[in-house]
């Protein structure tokens, strides 16, 4: 039993935003665990290049698509349904955006872009792929949906990222609500709330890793295997009984940081 607990052999996964950063970390982890992985991103060149690189670890297929609209979500779902005969084992809703601006100047487009991609898209892509996930699922081997949120949905960061905070907090609670519905179809939904991982999204961890590590209880920023490990756990048999919950993968920032106020 134990030797197959974390295996993804024979499983098919789709990772949105899979051409870089956390999505790419997860895609590689899935490939090395035996899955066939489709990666999607808005930029076709980046998607194709990442798939070419990741193919060294297993079958990785690029599916460029902008999922910031409902039509885009439905188009991506149609591609998967055609390629996989209406079945999908694992969906990772990772594509996301951030926006920072002073409160007095925060623009409507900075609100709408972030909320659309970070909250609306996970809902409507999961809805569009519901049939494929349901077709692949069984009581013994449920399908999986993993939403990538952020610890900024759990606690505040010092930057004025109003729509990002709102979106990631919304996604954590949306995960619970959707999980309550999807479990009826043997589809298990969970979420990961990443902390400091070096990426285009998290330039502080990428460009000032030592300073960020010094503020992190674990004493370092996240490594690729930290993110891959959490995602593999949730996607594999090991995570079958974890439903609707969210895991903070952040070196202790959200739940193990001391408030060093006046003594």
Secondary-structure blueprint:
Blueprint (H helix, E strand, L loop, with lengths): L11 E5 L4 H12 L3 E5 L3 H11 L5 E3 L7 H14 L6 E4 L14 H21 L1 H7 L6 E6 L13 H21 L4 E8 L8 H5 L1 H6 L9 H12 L10 E4 L14
Parallel strand pairs: 1-2, 1-4, 2-3, 4-5, 5-6, 6-7
Helix pairs in contact: 1-9, 3-4, 4-6
CATH fold naming: Rossmann fold
Quote the distance from N terminus to C terminus.
Answer: 51 Å
Tell me the radius of gyration: 18 Å
Question: How many independent structural domains?
Answer: 1
Biggest sheet: strand arrangement: 3-2-1-4-5-6-7
Find the count of extended strands (DSSP E, 2+ residues): 7
State the helical fraction: 40-55%
Strand content: 5-15%
Largest sheet: 7 strands, parallel
Low-confidence stretches: none
CATH class: Alpha Beta
Q: How does the overall form come out from the CA principal axes? A: globular
What is the CATH superfamily label? NAD(P)-binding Rossmann-like Domain
Structural class: alpha/beta
Mean pLDDT: 94
Tally of helical segments: 9
Descriptors for this entry?
263 residues, Rossmann fold, 7-stranded parallel beta sheet, alpha/beta, 9 helices, 41% helix, 13% strand
Outline the structure in words:
The protein is of the alpha/beta class and 263 residues long. The chain has one domain: Rossmann fold (3-Layer(aba) Sandwich), CATH 3.40.50.720. Helix content is 41%, strand content 13%. Helix 1 packs across helix 9. The longest helix has 21 residues. The termini are far apart. The mean pLDDT is 94.
């Amino acid at each position: 039993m134990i030797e197959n607990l974390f295996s993804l052999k024979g499983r098919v996964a789709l990772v949105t935003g899979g051409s870089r950063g956390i999505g790419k970390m997860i895609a590689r982890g899935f490939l090395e665990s035996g899955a066939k992985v489709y990666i999607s991103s808005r930029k076709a060149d980046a998607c194709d290049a990442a798939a070419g690189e990741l193919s060294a670890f297993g079958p990785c297929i690029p599916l460029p698509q902008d999922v910031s609209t409902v039509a885009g979500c439905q188009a991506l779902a149609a591609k998967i349904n055609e390629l996989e005969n209406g079945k999908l084992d694992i969906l990772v809703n990772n594509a996301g955006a951030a926006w920072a601006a002073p409160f007095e100047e925060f623009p409507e487009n900075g609100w709408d872009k972030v909320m659309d991609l970070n909250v609306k898209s996970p809902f409507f892509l999961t809805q569009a792929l519901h049939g494929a996930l349901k077709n692949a699922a069984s009581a013994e081997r449920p399908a999986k949906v993993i939403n990538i949120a952020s610890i900024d949905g759990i606690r505040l960061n010092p930057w004025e990222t109003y729509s990002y905070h709102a979106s990631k907090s919304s996604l954590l609670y949306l995960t619970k609500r959707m999980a309550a519905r999807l479990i009826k179809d043997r589809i298990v939904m969970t979420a990961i709330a990443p902390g400091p991982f070096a990426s285009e999204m998290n330039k502080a961890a990428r460009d000032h890793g030592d300073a960020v590590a010094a503020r992190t209880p674990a004493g370092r920023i996240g490594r690729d295997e930290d993110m891959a490990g959490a995602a593999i756990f949730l996607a594999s048999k090991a995570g079958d009984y974890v439903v609707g919950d969210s895991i903070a993968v952040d070196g202790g920032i959200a739940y193990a940081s001391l408030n060093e106020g006046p003594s």
